[in-house]
Amino acid sequence: MAKRSRSIGLDPERDYLEIIRNLSLYEFPWDTLQALSFALFRTYAVPSIGGLLDRTGAFTGDTQKRYDDTALLLEVAFVEGFESRQGKAALRRINQMHKMYDISNDDMVYVLSTFVVVPARWIAEFGWRPLEENEIRAGVRYYRELGRRMGIRDIPETYDDFARLMDDYEAAHFAYDAGSARVAASTLELLASFYPVPLRRAVDLFSRSLMEPQLLAAFDLPEPGRAARHLARLALKLRARFVALLPPRRRPTRVAEMPRIKSYPDGFVVEEMGTFAPGCPVPHVRSRAEGA
Predict the structure, then answer these.
(1) Taking phi first (over 0 means left), then psi (-120 to 50 degrees means alpha), and beta for anything else, what does residue 284 get?
(2) What is the dihedral of CA 176, 179, 184, 190, to 10 degrees?
(3) Does 268 fall in a domain?
(4) Residue 90 pLDDT > 70, yes or no?
(5) Residue 1: predicted pLDDT
(6) 3-state secondary structure of 262
(7) Is the pLDDT confidence value at 287 over 70?
(8) Does residue 276 fall inside a structural domain?
(9) Would you call 264 exposed, middle or buried from its count of C-beta atoms within 10 A (0-12, 13-18, 19+)?
(10) Share of the chain above pLDDT 90, in %
(11) Domain that holds residue 139
(12) Is the pTM above the cut of 0.70?
């Protein structure tokens, strides 16, 4: 008997956290992690985002820890829930770190849109089954609530609104920036390091094969070629067919338990994760409009 969604019959407005947990911890843990990693990666192609990350040094000087902190804080928020002690601590850390820098609301809404759209598109193309309508709506509901708790304004209301915003923002803002390119290179190097040394060049080629030409151009990365693009997508689709034949997972797969998370071998304390002021190397610069 074919596997079915664990979230059939759940209400995306009321049960959105349960639906997100089902997708991320049981049904698509690998796909979700890959998609969210790729979502964050593509935001670096916006110079105001990638350039800022380069100036902080967080994604070039200590890439592994930044990767781990981002993945773990985001996971704590939905696993524990927004109102739990751990969930509140994770959101507090996320907000404290963002307030250390001058980040526009437009950039914040864009990043939020990638969390909604990129996983949905990834699973549509590479997942072992398509997402149900209530699962897509639950993703919108979850990230709208996350964005509200982060103080983000003008958040889209529907999936189509999020998708339109993401595509339009990338069309308008993707551009080459030397700092962004350094952040992208460091991130690709980290992702390759998760695999044995003989496979790392292949992993780099595989990663580039999943990137659109405009994304490659923004990072000045070489085009992988039509054959590599075809093989990368074929490999992911064959994986999806294999996963569809496996029995349903009975225990959750947590990011915190994955071997690629290396910064906290003895466990982590949410309140101590991330970066802290006054260690911020990027000064706040108020615009003329803000200073008026």
Answers:
(1) beta
(2) 170
(3) no
(4) yes
(5) 52
(6) coil
(7) no
(8) no
(9) middle
(10) 78
(11) 16-248
(12) yes
